[in-house]
């Protein structure tokens, strides 16, 4: 008796693109909540600016290309790109950083290649690479995570930092920002400190940088 064989996948798979994008967004919620908990309102501003810019940029390019705008936007890929880049940016980055990154991600890295499915690289990460190479100073404005003796900027202070690029009264950018744990580890290793001595710093947690692990 001949038994027919089937190739994988063996479980039913949905090809609904919108549902797939939504699943990824839902999976990002715990990370977004953790970032907000440790780094404050800057993460929320990044997400709002990045996602709104992504939707507008996608709609404009689709209109110029003569493609259906509403149905394409409903697949959620533009929103997901905005969320991915927004979560990757420093919480105190000025407002124009996510705008530039998203414009490059949507217009150049995605739509210039033909849109979703034709782009060879992840648009959000292309935007991140452009930002980190073009604006290294603004891309290092990480505030110390709350819980290690530093006060995370509140809503109003973060609003001024993001949109006016002005620190709170009596403060400087150096006093409210810090090097990332990776940069700190690199610097201290160059000073011939052992790894045990490096991770004794309160900026390091059990498995990595406090607030990043």
Automatic annotation (TrEMBL):
The chain crosses the membrane at residues 20-38, 44-64, 95-113, 125-143. One of its GO terms (cellular component) is plasma membrane. Keywords: Electron transport, Flavoprotein, FMN, Membrane, Phosphoprotein, Translocase, Transmembrane, Transmembrane helix, Transport. Signal peptide: none annotated. GO terms for biological process: electron transport chain; transmembrane transport. PANTHER family: ELECTRON TRANSPORT COMPLEX PROTEIN RNFD (PTHR30578), ION-TRANSLOCATING OXIDOREDUCTASE COMPLEX SUBUNIT D (PTHR30578:SF0). This is Electron transport complex protein RnfD. It comes from hydrothermal vent metagenome.
